[in-house]
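Structure first, sequence second, as always.
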C-alpha cells in the first residue's frame, strides 16, 4: 500500500504538545513544507511526509498554534524521522510509477 493509505490507523508521529488528539482514526500522511520542494498546487514526494493526527496536520498546514513556526517545523521533522524509522523497521519500501509503497512484514 502507499504511504498515504498506510497512515490510516497509525499513531501520530508529530505529537505537538497540547494539540495532538492522539486518535489513530484521524491519522493521515502530512507533507512537510520545505522551500523548493513544496508550493502552491504541488506536494513533495511522500517520503517528505509524516503520519499526523488531524489536529497536528492542521497546524502543520498553517493553523494557528501556540507554538512558533520553527517549533512546529521541528516537531514535524521529528515526525518524519519517526515515520521513516517505523516503516523501515517494520517492512519494505518500493517505488513504482513515481509512487512509494510500503509492505509491512
Amino acid at each position: 500500500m502507499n504511504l498515504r493509505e498506510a497512515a490510516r490507523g497509525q499513531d501520530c508521529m508529530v505529537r505537538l504538545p497540547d494539540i495532538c488528539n492522539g486518535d489513530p482514526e484521524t491519522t493521515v500522511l502530512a507533507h512537510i513544507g520545505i522551500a523548493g520542494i513544496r508550493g502552491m498546487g504541488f506536494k513533495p514526494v511522500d517520503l517528505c511526509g509524516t503520519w499526523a493526527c488531524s489536529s497536528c496536520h492542521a497546524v502543520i498546514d498553517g493553523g494557528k498554534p501556540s507554538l512558533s513556526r520553527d517549533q512546529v517545523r521541528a516537531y514535524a521533522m521529528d515526525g518524519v524521522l519517526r515515520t521513516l524509522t517505523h516503516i523501515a523497521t517494520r517492512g519494505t519500501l518500493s517505488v513504482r510509477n513515481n509512487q512509494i509503497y510500503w509492505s509491512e512484514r
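Margin note: The two ends are 12 Å apart (CA to CA).
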